[in-house]
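Support request, please re-run this one:
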Amino acid sequence: EFSNVVPNSSWDLVAMVSGPEPQRTFFEENVVKFANRNNVKTLILSGKPGEKETIQPDGFVTIMPNLDDLSIAQVVLGAKFLLCRAGYSTIMDLAALNRSAVLVPTPGQTEQEYLAKRLDDKKMFSCCNQKNISKLNLSWFAERELNDEIGHKFFPTPNDLLNLVEKTISK
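Re-run finished. Output below.
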C-alpha cells in the first residue's frame, strides 16, 4: 500500500515516541537533548493521538502529537535516521516500509529489550538504552548504517523479518 509514497525529507531524525508514562516522556526529553546538542533537525511523533497542537520548542525540534498513516510513511521514508520503540507492531511497520531504525526498548518491558537485542545481533536494527540517547552523537548513528544508495540498511523482506520475530518470540 505504500509503494508509491513520496518521502518527506524535511527532518534528519524522526523519533516515534511511545510507551507508558513516565517512560514516554523520558524518551521524548532524551531525544530533544540529543537533537539540541547535535543540531539535528528532528521530528518527534509524540504518540498522543488526542492532542492536535504541534510544538516547536526550538529551531531543531518539532513535536507532533500524531500523523495519519500516509504522513508517517512519508517522514519515515524521508528521514536519515529513525529512533523507535522496540514493539512488535513498530518493527512490522518498519519492515513493511523497508526501513531499519535504532530501537529503544521501553525500560522494564523485557520482550522489547530481548527483541531489540536479538534484532541488533542479527544486524537488522541497532539498539540503544533510553538513558543513553542524549549522550549519542551523529557518528554513532552513521556507524550503524550499512551503505546502500540512500544510506539505509538493506533490510530483509517483511516475511523474513516476521519469521525471525516469530521464532524469537516463541523461544
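Helices lie at 23-38, 69-78, 88-96, 110-121, 138-143, 158-170. Confidence is low (pLDDT under 50) at residues 146-156.
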